[in-house]
Amino acid sequence: SFKGTEKRTRENLELEIENKGGNLNAYTTREYTSYILQVDKSEFNWGIELLSDILLDPNTNKNLSTKKKEQFIQNYLSVFENQIYFAGFAHENIYRGHSIGNPILGKKENINGVTRKMIVDFHDLNYTGENLLFVVSGNISHDQVEN
């Protein structure tokens, strides 16, 4: 789930999306993170503002990294339980020595060492204009998207 932004708590974010009739989802692969927001055409401008807020001003309070660590560890353990570990092991060996060979969730031994500063620095380095691709689908004019 989304942790909120500096101006929207997690609860307010979820309620706002629900009240607008929207649907927000995200997923991470080895190569990218995708945020998907589905909204009615009449809520397009609000949707752009919301995605911008999530991407550019995420909540990185001090408790977030601890919560994230716990979530990572739970996800990490479920990976082993679901036997996805073996596919990850093969991927790691195929791409040995390259960052794309690293597990998506990171290595268990590194998770506890993650700090809030590391999260903020990673975000500031990677979530920048040249790294972002924005795609719009639906009955929206090019001019409206450009504006």
Give the SSE layout.
Blueprint: H1 10-19, E1 23-28, E2 33-38, H2 44-56, H3 62-81, H4 85-94, H5 108-111, H6 116-126, H7 142-146
Antiparallel strand pairs: 1-2
Structural notes for this entry:
About 5% of the residues are buried. By secondary structure, this protein is mostly helical. About 50% of the residues lie in helices and about 10% in strands. It has a two-stranded antiparallel sheet with strand order 1-2. The longest helix is centred in the middle third of the chain and has 20 residues, at about 60-80.
The fraction of residues in strands falls at: 5-15%
The total of beta strands comes to 2
Largest sheet, if any? 2 strands, antiparallel
State mean pLDDT (0 to 100 scale).
82
Radius of gyration: 18 Å
What would you call the structural class?
Answer: mainly alpha
Q: State the order of secondary-structure elements, H for helix, E for strand.
A: HEEHHHHHH
In the sheet with the most strands, the strands line up as 1-2
Residue windows where pLDDT falls under 50 for at least 5 positions: none
Q: What is the molecular shape?
A: globular
Helix content: 40-55%
* Helix run count: 7
Ends apart, CA distance between termini: 30 Å
